[in-house]
Amino acid sequence: MSALALQEIIPAPATPAALKRRVMANAAKRPGVYELLDATGAVVYVGKAKNLRQRLLSYFSAPSRSKSSLLIRSAAGIRWRHVPSEFAALLEELRLIQTLRPRYNVHGSASPASLAFIKVAGGPVPRLAVTAQARDPGGLYFGPFRGRAQTHGAVHVLADLLGLRDCADRTPMRFRDQASLFEAPLAPLCIRHELKTCLGPCAARVGADRYGRAVRAAQDFLEGRSAHPLDRVLDAMHEAAAAQQFERAAHWRGKLDELTRLFAAVSRLRAAVEALSFVYTVEDEGGERDERVYLVRRGTVRAVAAVPRTPIEREAFAALVRRHTRDPEPAPVARTGSEMGQLMLVMSWFRAHPEEYERTSPYATWGPRVETPPSALA
């Protein structure tokens, strides 16, 4: 491709002064999202604002060593779009970050330092990991849970009980089904197998099916579907007490307390997520009469539409509500990183703006044939 043709595809970088003139001429005092572009046209940063004009102009007056100043001086272009509301801007910013993964944005769910997520990590031989962010779009996460240290402790107890590995992902794994491929027996790489707190997938001491059952047992516990690990701890504690091994019984009691706290947190989380199921009506903040309704189901936005004003529009939206609320299953705790990002956004929005609950309505109010799920009535 010739240099001339390349210039036609990739416009010449604009100077900060030119970018400022473009913002002053075209950006309105309305909610919106914006993208900063590099010299190749790639998006390097995505942001949102309640007042888009004010936010973009603030870049040009930022202190010289601030992040805003560095971003605008490295930008070759700005692209923006107005949206009806601050809530719409938040959702669109999240979507763009998850889709484009810009270089200067933090990818994943931003969360307070006290919150933690439990990730099923490690590919075909999974392990449980406690993370501060839900960064992997396709990863499976449970949470968020309060108390990072307490969550670490409970996950350690759960992994020990079920025999799940806790080694690094780079550690070679070999199931018992593969033992014939090795001339000599493999030695476990740590002491946990000897202590009977790991099934030993690093040394072909367990088959794929058996290890898979242990992973599913952990997921069932973290979903609140099974309390079997608690039963195992109770049995061990009572056995030690019956043998008058009181220090050992106290040891198991501590493990029981950690797991019980986590199981209770799972139950509270399920209830909180289930409560985030409603239709949310948001007014247009830009004066364009573009009011929207958001169908929120278990903390994520399943559908967006213009506020229905005619009987036909109302029936169409009622059908949309029915389609997205048929699932009678309880609210899941496990979510992908992308889903977790939106859950955190919705939870944070209503925590910061509790008055917005007044703009929500039950599914049943959107037409006589709209059925409210039994779980929403519990």
Characterise the protein shown here.
The protein is of the alpha+beta class and about 375 residues long. The protein has three domains: about 5-100, 3-Layer(aba) Sandwich (GIY-YIG endonuclease), CATH 3.40.1440; about 115-275, no CATH class; about 275-375, no CATH class. Helix content is about 40%, strand content about 15%. A hairpin with a 2-residue loop joins β8 and β9. Residues about 1-10 and about 370-378 have low confidence and may be disordered.
- The chain-level mean pLDDT equals 87
Count of discrete domains: 3
Strand order of the largest sheet: 5-4-6-10
> Could you tell me the strand content as a percent range?
15-25%
Total strands: the figure is 11
Gross morphology: globular
Helix content: 40-55%
Biggest sheet overview: 4 strands, antiparallel
Low-confidence stretches: 1-11, 369-378
What structural class do you assign from the helix and strand content? Answer: alpha+beta
Rg, rounded, reads 26 Å
Please give a handful of descriptors for the protein shown.
GIY-YIG endonuclease; alpha+beta; disordered N terminus; disordered C terminus; 3 domains; globular; four-stranded antiparallel β-sheet; 11 strands; 378 residues
